Amino acid sequence: MMITTTSPMMKRSHLLSIFLISLLSAVLLISGCSKDRDLLEDDRQAAELYDSARSSLNARNYGQAIVLYKQLRNRFPFGRYAEQGQLDLAYAYHKAGEPENVSATVDRFIRTYPTHPNVDYAYYLRGLTYYEQNIGFLSQLFPERIATRDQSLSRQSFDGFSELLRRYPQSRYAPDARQRMVFLRNNLAAYEVAVAEYYMRRKAYIAAVSRATYVLETYPGTPPTNDALALMADAYDKLELTQLSEDSRKVLELNDPTHPYLTGKRRDGRGFFRRLFSFD
After folding, report:
1. Residue 138's closest CA among 127, 156, 151?
2. What is the pLDDT of residues 206-253, one digit of tens each?
3. Global pTM?
């Protein structure tokens, strides 16, 4: 029969191992609790910062809202408040009239949260910002001058809405985007006619025909196409290209037999093309 004995040294080693394991467990437990407390504290601070930013946004203090949303993004780049904060920041930029910052913020949001349930709103907001920047204010004060302004923002707005419809045709923002795109398309066509009329006044008839042709090819079916046809007939007549002038006139007669160019009547006191705001 073998009798096993444990030396005092072995006992001390065993107790030390137990102590170290217990100490490590306690450290891990304390560390975990501390981390949980830090996360809770971060979430609380993020919530408070988001609420402050939202309050500024609701109060239409867009500058302050932008500052607070940017602080939220920089301090707490992850989590539910960061996601919604990005969209709110884009909206604040929109209301502040900063389309470039709207576009940059929207792009960042789309890259970071491509599957977000409200990502369609990001696309819509980008188009809407360019739309209102170029058209919204002027349409209320000087509706007759919209078509004569630089149309780069209109094209950016049109492209933004097009992207929304391509990616999310069933979005709740799609019907509004479609209506705005119709207006934008008509406006872009009217702008080209206004430029063509400018060339007509400068007796640059070939350039005028080129612009009018562009309207017919690029924006078929829009109301300004009839004005483009009338302008082409007039320009060809000035160039003594009788057959081309007659062909343009015949097409115009089929499309709009009561057009002022054909009847000789004026739509307003400034005449046929001059109703569009002059460039000079």
Report:
1. 151
2. 999 999 999 999 999 999 999 999 999 999 999 999 999 999 999 999
3. 0.70
Q: How far apart are CA 78 and CA 91, in angstroms?
A: 19
**Residue range 44-113, CATH number:** 1.25.40.10
Residue 261, helix vs strand vs coil: helix
Q: Where are the domains positioned within the chain?
A: 44-113
Task: Give the alpha-carbon dihedral of 163, 169, 174, 179, to 10 degrees.
Answer: 80
Asked whether 102 and 93 are in contact (CB, 8 A), the reply is yes
- How far apart are the C-alpha atoms of 85 and 69, rounded to whole Å? 6
Task: Please tell me the distance from the alpha carbon of residue 76 to that of residue 104, in angstroms, as a whole number.
Answer: 19
Helix, strand, coil in percent for the chain, rounding step 5: 80, 0, 20
Torsion sign (Cα): 131, 137, 139, 143: negative
**Most distant CA pair in the chain, distance:** 131
CB 86 within 8 A of CB 112: yes
Residue 233: count of CB within 10 angstroms of its CB = 24
Residues 6+ apart with CB under 8 A from 279: 148, 194, 195, 198
121 in Cβ contact with 101 (< 8 Å): no
Of 162, 156, 224, 240, which Cα lies nearest the Cα of 191?
A: 224
